[in-house]
Design a protein that fits this description.
It contains 20 helices and 23 strands. The chain has 749 residues and is α/β, with parallel strands linked by helices.
């Protein structure tokens, strides 16, 4: 609570710093150009089988269009400087437009552009130039190049050192009258900046196929246009790569078809000549016909052999003598009509002769006539059989020849077929390859008209409604905190870095030290602040100190009180005078001793002047105690002993035997003896008097006593160099006072 009150007294500083910091935050937000976040999500499909093109494209069965895509590789493609350069060039990012407003700068883009600059040439000096454009009227404008102002007309070609441009009217031509600042960008450097820091490309999840594209821009629409153009350029590049592959494939196929056409023509001519030479059209059909004809000829040859055998049998039968008048066997197997007629006549005459011989003998003219006829018929049959036999032999020879020829032809079929197969195989291979390439060429032509990118936009580019930088709420919060922290830090550092004592708690760190009380601040010219009937704060504090002298040392006599401090100016004389007055108000006899033999000030504070004093008593045995005791003229119970003439050797004087006598006599004569002695931090006189004191009161002054000088007090307490050391914290400002009166280390309100 005390710490809070310590800071609360500076409430006006807190209010000022908070108001100033919030004001600075407001101005910063007004001046600082807000940045918006633009994001988009893409899905990268793994085109392992070339599905980015149609699956039926040329050689897709051989996976010639296989493009195994990975997210890591595509991230690098999207961040490639060449691709980013194309996008920036397409969007004309080589020119920036801005207008200075009352607070900050407004970036112009798209529909807010009063003018548009078409660039034809940009070289390095143009990127560092300070350029501006001011619209003069509907036809003219003022172009300022590094302070040089020139008037041009719109759509006029401007060629100056470092650049060649043409200025056109923009969508917001009528709206802008302020000078427009122009800045040319080096697209190579800008693309590198986008690649390294501005554009962020990262997978949304680990091992996933989705990519998050994000960037920040002062103009949300510009960022959206950039991401849209980047995605479009990426897809177009993907399609172009596949189109190049497809066109190269078609070119390769056309070249192969050209050579295949020539090779196929040669092979087909070779097959044609081979068939012509071997007199075949369809070798399988020809072989089947030849085999069938060979069977027919074999059958005919067999029939011919049968007939020859019949002829031979007939000849043998006819030529046998014992068969002169026998019947000739039937010739059913022979197809010669003449022979059949002769045999029938012969057999009929034989039967007629046999019938006649049953009734007549062989000499009978009828029988003889029939016998002659039979002999003539037999001669005719023999002649006819020879003719038939010769015809059959000729036929058999012809059949044998034809059968042999057909059998030879059939036997040659495998050889011809093998030769034709060899030629046909080559023809078939080249013909199949020709048809395959022709088909793939058509498929590739079809695929080029239906080519699709392998990426897919999941979320279209979009910007946030609130700017991501600067964050207004965060800045206001930080300014509020900063406005509160600065005074806290200032006050804390002021207290901690201060070399003077500013809080009574710092005295608690001294072992064995007890605080007798605290005294508030007094007026500059006030010496006596205590009087009979006085009710001021400081007078009440002296009365509480008087009471504390009894409570802090119960059962012990505090008759002789030694008052000292570290250095001069800490208020020991002031305290001695007012403590003496306070004690005298209780009808106690009090005597104040001005024992500061070097720079006495007690009598001056009381506005008294005496000739004789302590130095006289200590030096001369002739001086009595009553000679140096004087009334204070303030209280009848208060007496004063002055310093007397300044001694040459005060330290040695305090070691004389008269000092003991002095205190012995004073103890008998007064109830309280207050010894105002020299500061212990400057001279050692107080230590010479310490043995005669019942209690030693050490004055520490607020914002005056040095903290390092408290080591003297610490040494006194640790080594018991003073009897019953008590501390009085003097000259506390009102803001540091407790809300009550000190009672030892306790406070009563």
């Amino acid at each position: 609570m005390k710490e809070i009150l310590n800071y609360a007294k500076y409430w006006y500083i807190f209010l000022i710093t908070i108001v100033v910091s919030i004001g600075i935050a407001y101005l910063y937000l007004q001046i600082k150009t807000p940045q918006y976040s633009i994001t988009s999500t893409m899905l990268i499909q793994d085109d392992k089988a070339g599905d980015g093109m149609l699956k039926g494209t040329a050689f897709s069965d051989l996976q010639m269009f296989k493009t195994a895509k990975t997210v890591e590789n595509e991230i690098e493609v999207l961040r490639s400087k060449d691709l980013l350069y194309k996008v920036l060039k397409t969007l004309s990012f080589e020119t920036n437009y801005s207008v200075k407003r009352t607070l900050g700068t407004e970036v112009l883009y798209g529909e807010t552009l009063p003018v548009k600059i078409m660039t034809y040439k940009l070289v390095h000096p143009a990127f560092a130039k300070k350029l501006s454009l001011t619209i003069k009227d509907d036809e003219r404008f003022v172009w300022e190049d590094n302070g040089k102002r020139i008037i041009y007309r719109f759509n006029q070609l401007i060629s100056l050192p470092g650049y060649t441009i043409r200025v056109e009217k923009g969508p917001a031509f009528k709206a802008e009258k302020d000078p427009i600042d122009i800045k040319f960008n080096n697209l190579k450097s800008l693309s590198e900046a986008y690649s390294v820091s501005i554009l962020s490309v990262a997978p949304t999840v680990k091992d996933g196929n989705t990519i998050l594209l994000s960037l920040t821009d002062a103009v949300p629409q510009r960022g959206i246009d950039f991401l849209n153009a980047l995605i479009e350029a990426y897809n177009l590049q993907d399609i172009n790569n596949k189109s190049i592959m497809a066109r190269n494939t078609i070119k390769f196929i056309d070249n192969r078809l050209k050579y295949l056409t020539e090779d196929l023509d040669v092979v087909e001519r070779d097959v044609e000549n081979y068939k012509r030479q071997n007199r075949v059209t369809n070798i399988s059909a020809d072989a089947q016909i030849a085999l069938q004809n060979s069977g027919d000829y074999t059958q005919q040859l067999a029939n011919s052999e049968v007939q020859l055998n019949l002829i031979r049998s007939l000849e043998s039968y006819i030529n046998q003598p014992d068969n002169g008048f026998g019947l000739v066997p039937s010739t059913l197997g022979l197809k010669d009509l003449t022979l059949n007629d002769l045999i029938n006549k012969y057999n009929n005459l034989q039967m007629e002769r046999q019938q006649l011989l049953r009734t007549a003998n062989d000499k009978n003219p009828l029988v003889v006539n029939i016998s002659d006829q039979l002999a003539n018929l037999k001669v005719s049959m023999r002649e006819n059989l020879r003719n038939i036999k010769r015809a059959l032999l000729v036929e058999r020879n012809n059949l044998n020849s034809m059968s042999s020829m057909l059998e030879s032809k059939v036997r040659q079929v495998p050889v011809i077929e093998r030769g034709l197969l060899e030629r046909s195989r080559e023809q078939s291979v080249k013909q199949s390859l020709y048809h395959y390439l022709l088909q793939k060429r058509e498929e590739t032509e079809l695929s080029m008209s239906a080519m699709m990118p392998t990426s897919q936009v999941v979320d279209k580019p979009a910007s946030t409604n609130m700017p991501v930088s600067p964050k207004g709420q965060l800045i206001y919060l930080c300014s509020l905190i900063l406005g509160a922290v600065i005074p806290v830090g200032f006050i804390y550092c002021k207290d901690k870095l201060s070399t003077t004592v500013k809080d009574v708690t710092e005295l608690d760190l001294i072992p064995g030290a007890r605080v007798l009380g605290e005294l508030s601040h007094k007026g500059k010219r006030e010496t006596i602040v205590v009087g009979k009937g006085s009710r001021t704060t400081i007078s009440e504090l002296f009365r509480y100190i008087r009471n504390n002298l009894h409570f802090l040392n119960k059962g012990m006599q505090n008759q002789v009180l030694l008052v000292t401090s570290t250095v001069k100016g800490e208020g020991k004389t002031f305290f001695s005078i007012n403590l003496g007055i306070t004690l005298s108000l209780t009808d106690k006899k009090v005597c104040m001793l001005e024992f500061d033999l070097r720079k006495p000030d007690l009598l001056n504070g009381l506005k008294l002047d005496f000739d004789k004093g302590l130095s006289d008593f200590l030096i001369s045995d002739k001086v009595n105690l009553d000679d140096i005791i004087h009334p204070s003229n303030i209280s009848p119970n208060l007496s004063v002993i002055g310093c007397g003439p300044m001694p040459e050797n005060p330290a040695e004087l305090l070691l004389g035997h008269r000092l003991h006598l002095l205190f012995e006599l004073l103890r008998k004569k007064f109830d309280y003896i207050i010894v105002d002695t020299s500061p212990v931090g400057q001279v050692a006189d107080a230590f010479s008097l310490a043995g005669y004191a019942d209690a030693s009161i050490y004055l520490v002054r607020y914002n005056y006593t040095n903290k390092f000088q408290l080591k003297i007090l610490q040494d006194i307490c640790e080594n018991n160099r003073f009897n019953n050391p008590l501390i009085v914290f003097n000259d506390i400002k009102e803001t540091k006072q407790s809300y009550g009166y000190g009672y030892g280390k306790h406070v009563y309100s």
